[in-house]
Amino acid sequence: MNKIIAMMLFMCALIGQVFAADASASDDWVKEKIADMVPVNGSYRNEQYGFGVSVLQTRAYQPTGRDPDHGIIIVLGDGRTITVSAMYDAAFYGSTKSQLNHRLQGEHFDSVKRSAAVLDGKPAAQAVLQKGKNITKVVVQRRNAEEILYSAELTTNKDYQNEDLKTFDNIIHTFKTYSIPK
Length: 182
Description:
The chain is α+β, with helices and mostly antiparallel strands.
C-alpha cells in the first residue's frame, strides 16, 4: 500500500514538474513577445492612424512611448496571438487586394481560403491560411483618403482554433475608424 502511495506521489510530482516546465516556457515566450510594451485595459485607440478596438477580457499590450505605436498585440497563449495594427501605405499597394497579396507573398501554405470581409462597415479582404497545425487568419483594409493600411491577424493552431477564432471575430467586430487629427 505504501509503495502505491509513494508511486502516486512520485507521479504527481513528475506531472507537476512537466506542467511547471510548460508554464515557464510559455511565460518566457510571453515575456519576449511583450518586452517593452505596456498593458492595455478596456479599449485601445490609435490617434495617429485613426482606429481603435475593444480588448475586454484579453491580455493586450501596446508599445511604450519610446517605440512607434502601430497597434496592439493580444496574447492568447504560447505561440497564439492577435495583432491589430496600421501603417501608412509607403509601399504603394494602392488597394486592399494588393495589400493582402503582399502579405501572402513568399510564404507557402497547405491551404489558403480568401474571402470578402468588413471592418467598421467598410469592405475589407481576408484569408485563412493553414500550414500543418498552424492557422493564420488575416483581415486587411486600405483607408484610401489617408493611404493607411489596417491589418488584423490571428496566429493559432488546430487545438485552439475554434476558441481563438471566436475571440478574433469578437475583437474585429469592435474595430472602429476615427478622424485623424491634422
